[in-house]
Amino acid sequence: MCSSYGEETLISGPGKDADGTPVWVDLDSMSATTGELRVDIGSDKKFSSSDDIIRAAPDTGDFSVAPNSDGFIVKGVFKDGNNAAVGAGTMVVLCK
């Protein structure tokens, strides 16, 4: 699911990481610089949280959400489930 209204953005659904591993993506953002992106690695079902997660939000470092022609581009500094730094990254979300 991809939805936006004004600056509010909601994204929730299955995907794959760069290696083809299934992931579940949730993004709830109230503006271009607020909210949280959570990626459950190894889980492709809603409410089926894995122990392997990464997240990006304003409290983890730079965070932004911007629409593009096919969905959204999310940029941020990612941390793992133990709040350890993973690094900066960009996620392209295609909404179909």
If you had to describe this structure to a student in words, what would you say it looks like?
- By secondary structure, this protein is mainly β.
- The chain has one domain.
- The chain is 0% helix and 59% strand.
- The chain has no helices and 8 strands.
- It has strands at residues 2-5, 8-16, 22-29, 36-41, 53-56, 63-68, 71-80, 85-94.
- Strands 1, 2, 3, 4, 5, 6, 7 and 8 form an 8-stranded antiparallel β-sheet that branches.
- A hairpin with a 2-residue loop joins strand 6 (63-68) and strand 7.
- The protein starts with a strand and ends with a strand.
- The model has no long low-confidence stretch (mean pLDDT 85).
Q: Can you give me a brief rundown of this structure?
A:
The chain has 96 residues and is mainly β.
Biggest β-sheet, characterized? Answer: 8 strands, antiparallel
Helices and strands, in N-to-C order? EEEEEEEE
Provide the number of structural domains.
1
* Overall number of strands: 8
Distance N to C terminus: 8 Å
General form? globular
| Overall pLDDT metric | 85
Radius of gyration: 12 Å
Per DSSP, what share of the residues sits in E-state strands of 2 or more residues? over 45%
Structural class, judged by helices and strands? mainly beta
Low-confidence spans: pLDDT under 50, at least 5 residues? Answer: none
Multimer state: single chain
Helix content: under 10%
The total count of helices amounts to 0
